[in-house]
């Protein structure tokens, strides 16, 4: 059998085309992930700048103003400084646990962003168990804190890690019960379905009005999960010993700093998704492209407006968290655990039973 030269060239060009398509497919698969990571990074930098500006305004201070216009590059300057600082390791500690701890705290929170919808199809993974995947992944973070405290070979750090894990476990149970109530109300655990269920009735269909008790419990529990004042006992600012972070320096300390703001941002996004209607709004915003009969432009316009809407709701909750930091006094450890186990847990259970009863009666 004789194969012509032109046939060989055609076969080679076909295989090259197929290999280019595979490479293109692999690259395109990473584009949404990189876009999400870039957006998260910018969001964290904005939160740090807002917190410093709002805190300075509340305390009648100046705030950051030298690094960039209006001090917007101050967080970037702090991150660069931590990146070039020396990483110190405890001489008798477990260096593997000491190094793995911050990474687990950051990665477990980053994975939670994969189930957050920024639009109808703007989601990394639309799973049928999206909200419970977030709870399952976020429950891994306390292991990182325990590793950090134990690996430091420091009694204060180890006690700080235990205190952080106890706080996280105490408030994760009421938070899970509130999420379960939302799932029952929406007949789905998918974050996209929960948003769509609220959009049927417009502004009045928000779960904020249908689950007011659950919203308050979720708000308090999410603040405690993020270790924000008045629940920042694991790393109290007035203490000379900063809990599980005592022995950390350089970029490892920066990872804990980033993890706290990542957790705050993801909690705020879930507040917007679960209780405030997500990317939807009661007023129609697609009428402008419809006048000109531009369907594709209308979809793009609607998607952009939806992203702005969910971010506006998210940063509204962030503003509440920042102002709470400078208005409420810190709780003692016994008060914090009593609030979680003796008050929020029974209230969340009662709210779940009420939601289940109403759902059964409506069938």
TrEMBL record:
Q: What is its EC number?
A: 7.1.1.-
Keyword Nucleotidyltransferase in the entry? The reply is no
Keyword hit for Plastid: yes
In what way does this protein cross or attach to the membrane?
Answer: Multi-pass membrane protein
Name the residues that span the membrane.
26-50, 97-116, 122-146, 261-288, 300-322, 343-361
Which processes are annotated in GO (biological process)? aerobic respiration; photosynthesis, light reaction
- Cross-referenced InterPro entries: NADH_UbQ_OxRdtase_su1/FPO, NADH_UbQ_OxRdtase_su1_CS
| Molecular function, one GO term | quinone binding
User: What does the record give as the reaction this protein catalyses?
Assistant: a plastoquinone + NADH + (n+1) H(+)(in) = a plastoquinol + NAD(+) + n H(+)(out); a plastoquinone + NADPH + (n+1) H(+)(in) = a plastoquinol + NADP(+) + n H(+)(out)
Q: Which PROSITE patterns match?
A: COMPLEX1_ND1_1, COMPLEX1_ND1_2
Q: Which is an annotated Pfam family here?
A: NADHdh
Subcellular localization(s) per the UniProt record = Cell membrane; Membrane; Plastid, Chloroplast thylakoid membrane
Q: What class of enzyme is it?
A: translocase
Q: Name one GO cellular component term.
A: chloroplast thylakoid membrane
Q: Which UniProt keywords apply?
A: Chloroplast, Membrane, NAD, NADP, Plastid, Plastoquinone, Quinone, Thylakoid, Translocase, Transmembrane, Transmembrane helix
The Swiss-Prot or TrEMBL record describes its family as follows: Belongs to the complex I subunit 1 family.
Question: Whom does it interact with, and what assembly results?
Answer: NDH is composed of at least 16 different subunits, 5 of which are encoded in the nucleus.
Give the protein's biological function. Answer: NDH shuttles electrons from NAD(P)H:plastoquinone, via FMN and iron-sulfur (Fe-S) centers, to quinones in the photosynthetic chain and possibly in a chloroplast respiratory chain. The immediate electron acceptor for the enzyme in this species is believed to be plastoquinone. Couples the redox reaction to proton translocation, and thus conserves the redox energy in a proton gradient.
Recorded protein name is NAD(P)H-quinone oxidoreductase subunit 1, chloroplastic
Q: Taxonomy-wise, where does this protein's organism fall, top ranks first?
A: Eukaryota, Viridiplantae, Streptophyta, Embryophyta, Tracheophyta
């Amino acid at each position: 059998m004789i194969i012509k030269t032109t046939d060989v060239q055609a076969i080679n060009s076909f295989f090259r085309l197929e290999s280019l398509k595979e490479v293109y497919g692999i690259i395109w698969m990473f584009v949404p992930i990189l876009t999400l990571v870039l957006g998260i990074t910018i969001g964290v930098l904005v939160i740090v700048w807002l917190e410093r500006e709002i805190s300075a305004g509340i305390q009648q201070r100046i705030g950051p103003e030298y690094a960039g216009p209006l001090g917007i590059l101050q967080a970037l300057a702090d991150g660069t400084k931590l990146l070039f600082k020396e990483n110190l390791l405890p001489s008798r500690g477990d260096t593997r646990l000491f190094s793995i701890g911050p990474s687990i705290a950051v990665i477990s929170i980053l994975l939670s962003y994969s189930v957050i919808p920024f639009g109808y199809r703007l989601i990394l993974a639309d799973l049928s168990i999206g909200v419970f995947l977030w709870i399952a992944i976020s429950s891994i973070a306390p292991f990182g804190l325990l590793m950090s405290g134990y690996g430091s070979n420091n009694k204060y750090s180890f006690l700080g890690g235990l205190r952080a894990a106890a706080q996280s476990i105490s408030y994760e149970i009421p938070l899970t019960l509130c999420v379960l109530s939302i799932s029952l109300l929406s007949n789905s655990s998918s974050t996209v379905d929960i948003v769509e269920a609220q959009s049927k009735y417009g502004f009045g269909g928000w779960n904020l009005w249908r689950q007011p008790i659950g919203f308050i419990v979720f708000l308090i529990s999410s603040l405690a999960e993020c270790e924000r004042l008045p629940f920042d006992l694991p790393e109290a600012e007035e203490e000379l010993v900063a809990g599980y972070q005592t022995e950390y320096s350089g970029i490892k300390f920066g990872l804990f700093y980033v993890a706290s703001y990542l957790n705050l941002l993801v909690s705020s996004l879930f507040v917007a998704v679960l209780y405030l209607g997500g990317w939807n709004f009661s007023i129609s915003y697609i009428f402008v492209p419809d006048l000109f009969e531009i369907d594709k432009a209308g979809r793009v316009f609607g998607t952009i407006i939806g992203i702005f809407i969910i971010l506006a709701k998210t940063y509204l909750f962030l503003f509440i968290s920042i102002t709470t930091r400078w208005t409420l006094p810190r709780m003692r450890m016994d008060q914090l655990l009593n609030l979680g186990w003796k008050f929020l847990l029974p209230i969340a259970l009662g709210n779940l039973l009420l939601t289940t009863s109403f759902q059964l009666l409506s069938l």
